[in-house]
Specification:
The chain has 13 helices and 24 strands. The protein is an alpha/beta fold. The chain is elongated. The protein binds pyridoxal-5'-phosphate.
Length: 447
């Protein structure tokens, strides 16, 4: 099995064998269900039963947790009773850019499509085309717009680009007009796009004062239709500054300006994960969850807000990341481990080496800092994390053996290490760690 195959549970190749191991440690562990290739669900102990040909490192992606998170988000943003004509149901645009935050874009999109996500959000036309080619029919928003040359692919795959600059309207109009003339089966309607407003993040988007110029160019583009308007929040998890409140004001002013220019904004959307959790005034007609869809809350500021926010919208982590111990050594005091000898044994020590390195997503900044879980106990990472290998001090875990599972993210026995736990140690965001998950790490999709 190669690391970049995205496999769904009912498509597991014969190389994935399911082996039931009676082992007290395994029985104590969480239970998962794999669908066997002959089509029935098999209840088996956790990872000890995952056996496949190849390097012993893998990710488990719980599609059940993913779809449950989607349902939790949908209920959270549609709180009061049944939706009706006066309060239509808020839509969910599932952000699945960057290989669905490392989880695998196609299996994730298929699961979310079955669970009735309304829209998908990706970064570029290549990601959108991949989704279309794998049968995804929901509308797809290209969140960071397009670069000259991508227009044809956008039209061909019925993708909805975000427009950030008025000149992009002309490029898209030209491609749309051309496709109308050339196509054997002429398009039925105009090409939809969403307008991105820069409400204060000062990265991408049309600032409110540029709206009249935008409206003038749009009036010259008969083949285009503005079907949505959105903005992105810079610090929705931060409650120690007024930045989000100012962005909300600026966005409202932009919508009012569009109204005065006679522009229908279409579907309006603003909220990312932290705003979905904590700022109902940003929900408008659609919300765009990324991190919380995969089971992770942002680090709120002040941090004392975290328990309250996490309780408002409980989500479950979708990913577990594991490798096996491939070597164990007994070292004498003074022995040094790994590149540049950054760890020295100060007593007789047992050192485990796992088949995971920074090329797999076990990031190098965890050298001498992070930890893994072996047989339900934490073991500190020692020395420098290298491209393919990482060492851990298992002196305190006398039962550790070659072949044992090392959990990098996830639960083993009663012990859990979440992606945000590691992000705190690595001084980064959970999303960066998720996106770092290597291409060569096989992902197994569990119901
Ligand atoms: C435009 C846009 N909307 C929504 C999101 C989702 O953000 P989060 O992962 O914080 O929910 C992103 C991610 O960066 C984004 O770029």
């Amino acid at each position: 099995m190669t690391g970049n195959e995205n496999q769904e549970p009912d498509r597991l190749k014969p190389v994935l064998q399911i082996r039931l191991v009676t082992n007290r440690h395994a029985v104590e562990q969480e239970r998962f269900f794999f669908r066997s290739k002959i089509g029935y669900a098999v209840k088996i102990p956790m990872t000890r039963t995952v056996k496949f040909d190849g390097r012993p490192i893998w990710a488990e992606v719980s599609l059940g947790a993913l779809t449950q998170n989607l349902r939790a988000i949908r209920n959270h943003v549609n709180p009061a009773g049944a939706p009706g004509a006066r309060h239509p149901r808020r839509k969910i645009l599932a952000v699945i850019k960057s290989n669905a935050y490392g989880h695998g874009i196609v299996p994730v999109a298929r699961a979310l499509s079955r669970a009735r996500a309304d829209w998908f959000g990706v970064t570029c036309s290549a990601e959108g085309a991949e989704l279309r080619e794998s049968g995804i029919r929901e509308p797809i928003l290209i969140l960071t717009g397009f670069w000259a040359g991508e227009e044809q692919r956008i039209l061909e795959h019925h993708l909805t680009p975000a427009i950030m600059r008025p000149e992009q309207l002309r490029l898209l109009e030209k491609a749309a007009a051309h496709s109308y003339k050339r196509a054997r089966k002429p398009r039925k309607g105009p090409v939809d796009f969403h307008l991105k407003i820069d409400s204060g993040m000062n990265r991408l988007g049309i600032a409110p004062p540029e709206l009249p110029a935008f409206a003038r160019v749009l009036a010259e583009c008969p083949h285009l239709r503005l079907s949505g308007t959105f903005t992105h929040i810079a610090s929705s998890e931060v409650f120690t500054t007024e930045q989000t409140i100012e962005q909300e004001k600026s966005f409202r002013a932009a919508l009012a300006c569009m109204n005065s220019l006679g522009l229908d904004p279409g579907i309006v959307h603003m909220a990312n994960s932290a705003a979905i959790v904590s700022r109902p005034s940003t929900w408008y007609q659609m919300v765009r969850p990324g991190a919380i869809l995969y089971g992770y809350h942002q680090f709120f500021e002040p941090s004392t807000l975290n328990p309250e926010m996490e309780a408002k919208l409980p989500v479950r982590p979708v990913l577990s990341f594991r490798a096996r111990i491939i070597s164990l050594k007994e070292l004498a005091p003074g022995a040094r481990v790994g590149y540049n000898a950054r760890w020295t044994a100060d007593k007789p020590s047992r050192v485990a080496v796992l088949a995971a390195g920074y090329a797999d997503g076990l990031v190098r900044v965890l050298s001498n800092k992070g930890r893994i879980i072996v047989r339900g106990q934490f073991a500190p990472i020692i020395g420098t994390v290298s491209m393919d290998l990482t060492a851990a001090d298992v002196t305190g875990i006398s039962e550790a053996r070659v072949g044992d599972i090392a959990t990098i993210y996830g639960t083993d026995g009663g012990t859990t290490q979440s992606v945000p736990d590691v992000a705190r140690v690595a001084n980064t965001a959970s999303a960066e760690l998720l996106c770092a998950l290597g291409k060569r790490v096989p992902r197994f999709y569990l119901p």
